[in-house]
Amino acid sequence: MRRSIDRLYFAGLLTGPIGWAATLQTAYSLVSAECASASIHVVQVTLVGAAIALTGGTISWTVRSHLKAAGTRHFVAGLSAGAALLFALAILLQMAAAFIFKGCEV
């Protein structure tokens, strides 16, 4: 069981970009719906995308603690956790625009 978990050391490198891309596409498709009503769907989608990115980073960081300290997988796991954190930050910064622009500004 532990051996199969150790193979997830690169999870942050996958879930970060996936969460960011899914958030970006979904938020852009919801902008026109938010223009007509005062809903907060973009904020909710953004929080889900950040949670996806952070989940992969947490998995990578957890696996990192089980790997040998000098190995390549240990480095990649740390890099994956950092990349997932950066993607989550980018996702949350995109959410800031939802608080600044309220609907259909031209």
Brief synopsis:
With 106 residues, the protein is mainly α.
Q: What is the total domain count?
A: 1
Shape descriptor? elongated
Largest sheet at a glance? none
Helices and strands: which structural class? mainly alpha
User: Uncertain segments of ≥5 residues (pLDDT<50)?
Assistant: none
Topology order in helix (H) and strand (E) letters: HHHH
Summarize model confidence as the mean pLDDT: 84
Our estimate of the beta-strand percent is under 5%
How many β-strand runs?
Answer: 0
Q: Which percent range fits the helix content?
A: over 70%
Number of helices: 4
Please tell me how large the radius of gyration is: 17 Å
Termini separation (Å)? 55 Å
Keywords for this entry:
81% helix, 106 residues, single chain, mainly alpha
Structure report:
This protein is mostly helical and about 110 residues long. The protein has one domain (about 10-100). Helices cover about 80% and strands about 0% of the residues. It is built from four helices and no strands. α2 (about 10-35) runs parallel beside α4 and α3 packs antiparallel against α4. It starts with a helix and ends in a 6-residue tail after the last helix. The model has no long low-confidence stretch (mean pLDDT about 85).
